[in-house]
């Protein structure tokens, strides 16, 4: 999962796609692997590219062409192979590509609580970091977003998670504790997550 997420980040940077598309792309990868866990390792790169292309086409009107996508990898895949892989993925998922992204929940949480730019930036980074860690597989997007917010508050030494936060997110501090611990472990180790250090280390953030 971390390898595919790293690949997606490289493609996103080169094709200049919005970084939040990673969340939808990883969601498609997780579902494909749950349907077809026996996909060969040598096809993982193509699967990651396919999932990202599907996510872009689902989210945005002007998606890159198949030729543009395969040219980024320099791995010998053709546009025809990407299109065939897309057809396979759509059939495997029965064309159900709607995804309630953690970004959508996080945005609503932030609006409801009027938190500042620092909170927004770190929490936004965390939900993307979750794409690299297997421990987040199967976690509800709303839970991923709420745990990122709770951990962010702890980083900035803000007040404890209150009943107001529970009302806004739908989760108590106890329900978030496990995932917050996973965020802490991921940040402490930083293994496999360096691709996100560079884009989120820019002056913009």
From TrEMBL:
Give the GO molecular function terms: cyclin-dependent protein serine/threonine kinase regulator activity
Q: What domain of life does the UniProt record list for this protein's source?
A: Eukaryota
Record domain Cyclin C-terminal: where:
100-203
What protein does this entry describe?
Answer: Cyclin-like protein
Q: Which residues form a coiled coil?
A: none
Q: Specify the taxonomic lineage.
A: Eukaryota, Fungi, Dikarya, Ascomycota, Pezizomycotina
Instruction: Write out the similarity annotation.
Output: Belongs to the cyclin family.
Residue ranges crossing the lipid bilayer per the database entry: none
The record's keywords, sorted A to Z, are: Cell cycle, Cell division, Cyclin
The residue ranges of the Cyclin-like domain are: 6-91, 104-185
> Which species is this record about?
Piedraia hortae CBS 480.64
GO BP: cell division; mitotic cell cycle phase transition
> Which SUPFAM superfamilies does this entry report, sorted A to Z?
Cyclin-like (SSF47954)
């Amino acid at each position: 999962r971390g390898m595919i997420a790293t690949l997606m980040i490289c493609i996103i940077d080169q094709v200049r796609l919005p970084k939040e598309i990673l969340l939808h792309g990883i969601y498609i990868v997780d579902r494909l692997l749950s349907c077809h866990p026996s996909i060969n390792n040598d096809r993982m790169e193509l699967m990651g590219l396919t999932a990202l292309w599907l996510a872009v086409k689902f989210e945005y009107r002007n998606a890159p062409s198949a030729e543009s996508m395969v040219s980024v990898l320099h791995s010998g895949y053709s546009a025809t192979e990407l299109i065939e892989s897309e057809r396979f993925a759509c059939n495997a998922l029965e064309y159900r590509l709607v995804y309630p992204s953690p970004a959508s929940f996080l945005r609503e949480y932030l609006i409801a609580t009027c938190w500042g730019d620092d909170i927004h930036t770190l929490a936004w980074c965390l939900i993307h970091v979750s794409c690299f860690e297997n421990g987040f597989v199967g976690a509800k997007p709303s839970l991923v977003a709420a745990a990122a917010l709770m951990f962010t508050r702890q980083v900035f030494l803000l007040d404890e998670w209150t009943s107001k936060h529970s009302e806004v997110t739908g989760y108590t501090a106890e329900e978030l504790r496990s995932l917050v611990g996973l965020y802490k472990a991921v940040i402490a180790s930083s293994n496999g997550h360096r691709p996100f250090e560079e884009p989120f280390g820019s002056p913009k953030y």
